[in-house]
Design brief:
Shape: globular
Order of helices and strands: HHHHHHHHHHH
Oligomer: single chain
Number of strands: 0
Number of domains: 1
Length: about 260
Amino acid sequence: MKSIKELGYYSLNIISGIIFILSIPNEEAKNFLEIYSISSGFISIIIVYSLSKKYLTSKFKLIIILLSATGLITSIYDKKIGLIVGYALAAISVDYIATQVYIEQRNKIRMISFLFNAVLLFGLMQILMGLRILLGMILLLAMIKNNKIPETLNINKAELVIIKSNGIYYGVLYLIAKQNLVNLQLIYVLIQIGLSFALKIYDYRSRQNSSITNGIYILLKLIGVMPAIVILWFTNDIQIVFVYILAYVFLIRLEKLI
């Protein structure tokens, strides 16, 4: 039951991202997703790597501050890009602060992030982005005030695993965002769902989460197959399906490195 509940809260986190992406206006989607994919990739690599090394976890707050400063400087030159980078940083850092620092409250934090999506019902996408950034700032300030140090991720061959997994995940999403597709957001979120669950398999193991059963691992793998079927059904695009399957198989096999 505990593992199913944990998977349910993780699914809320994914659903939040899906709702947000599907809410992006069609005329802005391509440019937005290109910037979002590439910035998320770099941010994720930096954050996960810093959490995989014990000597860096004590400096995690400083790393987040430096990344935040980078986003702020970017916004000075281009407000739109700065907002997207800031949102990507907030979304990724909030997830890892929740799971590695405020472990007992992680599901509450995910629920708050999910509830923020209610503002999208009123077409207030930029307000949602602002709320996510605000939540990230609040958690960061709480870490500083309480002098919290994150738990270190247990990842064997950290450099290889982190660069390859994030490179494949965000690289594929970036390639999709670069395409002139009629159903860009739909295809993007389908691929994001499948690859997210593939990543979660080794993510759970790196966090040594003993509550995740073999049945849940099998379920995660089965969920990952479904996007390929849906994409093929709606678009009949063999090339996209082939790229997705290659990425998915690689990420599933990546768990053997841990």
